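Exercise 7. Given the components listed, write out the predicted structure of the assembled complex. Treat all entries as one system.
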Amino acid sequence: MTSDRGRPRGHSDVLVGLQYGDEGKAKIIDLLAPDYDVVARFNGGANAGHTIDTPSGRVVLQQVPSAVFHQGCELYIGSGCVLNLVKLRDELALLRSVGVDLADRLRISDRCAVVQPVHFLLDRRTGAAIGTTGNGIGPCYADRAARTRDGVRANLQLRDLLADPAGTAELMLAAVEPELEGEPDAGERLVAERERVAAMLESAEALRPMVTADRTHLARKVADGARVLFEGAQSLLLDVVQGDQPYVTSSHTLPGQAYVGGDLPPRYHRHTIGVAKAVVSRVGHGPFPSELGGERSAAYFAEACRTGRGRAEEQAEHDPLELLGSPDPLDVGAALRMLTGEYGSGTGRPRRIGLLDLEQLREQVTLHGVDVVYLNKTDCLAHYGDSHYGGVPVQLAAAAPGEEGGRIQVLPVFDAEQVRAAVAALPGLDGIPASMLAFKEYVEQRIGAPVIGLGLGPERDRTAEFARPDTLTGALSGALSGSRQAGA
Ligand code: IMP
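Answer.
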């Protein structure tokens, strides 16, 4: 396809998490980034935690798109995101300290809403009931929709702070003051809030060279041939409308939202890429149909949040291999959490663990038109071989209300070492055991989409790739319609 000016027109793909977050989206973005000119965010803020392993160690990014280590990639933060300015500046400093300077590569829309001190305060006061990350995200999006509070502006965009620092500082302090009224330490806290506002304004100023007021920035680039990959934050099951209220995030996480908060018209959309993980996890409260240990696990998580119990306490008290052999799914879930490191990258909280829920994935694939899927943590399924399941259990239907479990199918287990060795011997995929290929095919038929990559370890070169989204127009599009029919 060519543009009006005869140059090849670019395209955009959208990558989203298909479950409850933490599917390893950043690792896949890192893998795919060489095929794109821009990687862009369109929703959420510092509630995200994207872990990337680098030659200089592990980096956890919250707001910067994950393609930081690809020099040729521009990074863009779209107007649909909410910004924690101080954290963003710190993130850039952290990246500089590992040799990545984004000054010329990062662009930030000046229409992003700014997370204000009052938003943190309200989130910490009311968010615990949902299990929010406490980053002020919900109250910030709420103010964006409300626009004013008692007749004065409640939503402040980055451009407001840059145009009128003194005026916006006053507005932010005026919003927070009534919330502190009556508190015994109100005076001290107000001083701290003043300091916070000053730090925000300083950060805004430091970010100014990267801020763009050009709303057609991406659209012009793509019209001229650029290839954009949108990186969804949070995940489909946490969407404010499609997820289970109130246990959701406050923004839209769906692929279509890329063309609202990402500042690009939908005419360039090509593929929707989904990322799932084979051992499912959820942080925060709310329904989780395939949770190992069901309501008992949810209660354990709630208690861990209340008491601050995390990885260290669990590791000190339990032997994961002993738990893995237990007939109780609650113990199996705890063992998998310990063996596969399922603790929040941002919050450190233990994550609730569940079976790969193929019915749930199938629904998400259908509802959002997911073209291809990457399945991370497939190697971790090998642990089930030492559990009472004796194979890989997958969930095919939800449990009836009040019942634990659901309809489960146990598939043959594969040897993780064998699989990892095959992938380490790239470029061939010949050594991947037949049991794993059979598993992949079974999943494809159940969910109705091709699985084009299997994650077999945290490093990006531990991904068995069967195709790239780029090749979908060729041979794989046949496989795509084939598996859709098979799964229908
Ligand atoms: P909030 O987004 O901080 O308001 O939190 C709302 C819910 O979304 C909580 O259950 C959080 O734990 C969850 N959540 C928010 N961001 C992420 C993420 O990046 N990964 C996983 N869960 C998240």
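Discussion: The first strand starts at residue 11 and ends at 17. Residues 21-22, 47-49, 130-133, 135, 137-138, 233-234, 238, 247, 249-250, 283-284 surround inosinic acid (CB under 6 Å).
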